[in-house]
């Protein structure tokens, strides 16, 4: 969270299944009917549209609520398209209606209407392998791909990427055989963390704790949640492959934030609501914000790492830092859990910096969604300048806040700067222009003692929610 460049190999994405395949189903009369779906036609729900003038349609029998599938006689559109029933009994195309893909928002992507477990054309003669083609999830962008595709359709990551054999994606055997040295290096690095002042003043500090991986959605869904443990695993594995961490960085050991520190950002009722999840196997604050018995601990670790990383930089033990933490935080308001976020990590870090004698703190939020929680916390605070670049669409894009006229309040007008995009598709040139013309001039005039980056990666190219091109 503290000054880190945007990297394509760190972005998180949830994508639909885009690949061409063919399947064969058996009608009750015994005919084999070849189905050739159009590419990119459905939203990863197993339904594929077939276009044909003459078709057999499958319907459900509603007599006495029996629910049995029946097959209608072929519909003949005109004489020119007549089908020779006797000559070619096995060539009748089958039509199945395509579920229309709606515009998916941040809030409703995992509502029931997008759950792809249901199948409106099920035949008991199908083989399991035909119903559920083998798939693999990209370790870089989390895109789902068919098993026979070697490169991710979105980011181009190789199916058997090198990060699969290193770090946190390796098999148990590989980890024990090949990565004892890696783990030892991590442990040794933590022993020499910033608390032992040495020659690490000009190095980058990295905050990470494996216990944050225990925060996960218990309910199994066919399309995995975009904010899941694999997100950090992919980042850590990529850093390992590149030789960046732990070799060339200073590790910051994990620490759970105290209630006293959290109370500087959130009221006790908010803190206790999060802590209550420790006694629950599975719970939801909103339809997309889950928790399990480890979530409260993970949230404390995330906030604690951000606070300690900031303190290390302010005290001169590191030049800059990168907090690899989850759950994220910029949607968490003063007393509201939402948008995958439990505690506001950026706010905790900013206040930790001020306790370490930072007079002015700048928070730059380049997540594609507006950080409504961070703005709420600091909108009346002149010592913290909040600048956000985000997709807005006149308030129609989640969370709906962040218009250009939201500038702060109660004497702190001008200390909230919102740069709202009116549509998706913005790219590097748009961001560079915004930084050169707005962000950098304002930041230079403000002259912060510390800059915190809320580094959401969903504005990156290929993300299906952000739909931007950075």
Automatic annotation (TrEMBL):
Similarity annotation: Belongs to the histone deacetylase family. HD type 2 subfamily.
Any Gene Ontology CC annotation: histone deacetylase complex
GO molecular function, one term: zinc ion binding
Keywords, alphabetical: Chromatin regulator, Hydrolase, Metal-binding, Nucleus, Repressor, Transcription, Transcription regulation, Zinc, Zinc-finger
Names of the cofactor(s): Zn(2+)
Enzyme Commission identifier(s): 3.5.1.98
PROSITE patterns hit by this protein: ZF_RANBP2_1
Species annotation: Aquilegia coerulea
InterPro entries per record: HDACs, His_deacetylse_dom, His_deacetylse_dom_sf, Ureohydrolase_dom_sf, Znf_RanBP2
Pfam families noted in UniProt: Hist_deacetyl
Protein name as catalogued: histone deacetylase
Acidic residues bias locations: 113-130
Protein localization: Nucleus
Top-level taxon in the UniProt lineage: Eukaryota
GO annotation, biological process: epigenetic regulation of gene expression
UniProt domain RanBP2-type: residue ranges: 136-155
Chain intervals for the UniProt region annotation (Disordered): 107-131
Lineage, opening ranks: Eukaryota, Viridiplantae, Streptophyta, Embryophyta, Tracheophyta
Catalytic EC class: hydrolase
